[in-house]
């Protein structure tokens, strides 16, 4: 018994001695684990957490954008459906795009004829979210413009023209101001010979110059469109500016290029898309930015001519369209301001040069294809 406590003490001491390194190793591993945990937490806070946060923000933004897009599609579809109930029949439009999928810009007349055969002489097409009613056939057009002239007397909204002229000219204007400028324009052009023999004399003088330019080609093949545009432009310039330009004048060539590109743009798919959804297209890349920027050159050209006319204006002897307009402006008449004059001249040039030159070119092609027409009777 005397040796028992000693034995117990000996065993206890041995046990304690043996456990001490185990506890030390455990504490060491625990401290190492805590250190690694802190390191991982710092790494997470520094690198992983910002990435996850950014990813969550992108996901939330994408979800909100998707919800807004769905809401916009639903709202647009509902508005289109409400409008269709009061409009003539036509193809079913898509939100934002309208019926552009059914229209071929290079063959508009064929597209409209096909639509009239399917839906009747009065058809509704959609330029984006805006409806456009088509009148197909001579009798339908005559009935609308003659028997219902007041109802069909408005002008269409052409977004590209509004972007350039601000809806202050002739093409994209409406209301009392437009009616006053339209009456003034028609009266002034008639005073300068439109539809009269005096205008025929101006046209014949320019035609002789055109023939001389064609003779200078020595019978070689060429595209006469530029020469035709130059001759038509000079006739219009004589009425609007009181002067003409040489066919090789750089300002004239630049102006004709802008007019040509502007008309090509209006007939293109991009042009129709811009006129349908101009607010969205303004933020998208494309040729419309270049076309609209080039149109500013034409506006600057017109403004220079107006400024020179204003300095030499003689109210007793008005020389041209600009002089008559300036006289209206000086009297502070309704709808006759400088911006209206710039926009009106811009519209006259855009609407008059390319269309008239194209008609003459088409007539020449008909005479080439049917030579017997050229033989005088």
From TrEMBL:
Cofactors demanded by this protein? heme
* Name of the molecule in the record: Uncharacterized protein
Ranges that cross the membrane:
58-78
| GO BP, sorted A to Z | epoxygenase P450 pathway; xenobiotic metabolic process
Principal localization reads endoplasmic reticulum
Q: Which family does the UniProt entry place this protein in?
A: Belongs to the cytochrome P450 family.
Q: Could you tell me which InterPro entries the record lists for this protein?
A: Cyt_P450, Cyt_P450_E_grp-I, Cyt_P450_sf, Cytochrome_P450_fam2
Name the GO cellular-component terms. endoplasmic reticulum membrane
A single Pfam family it belongs to is p450
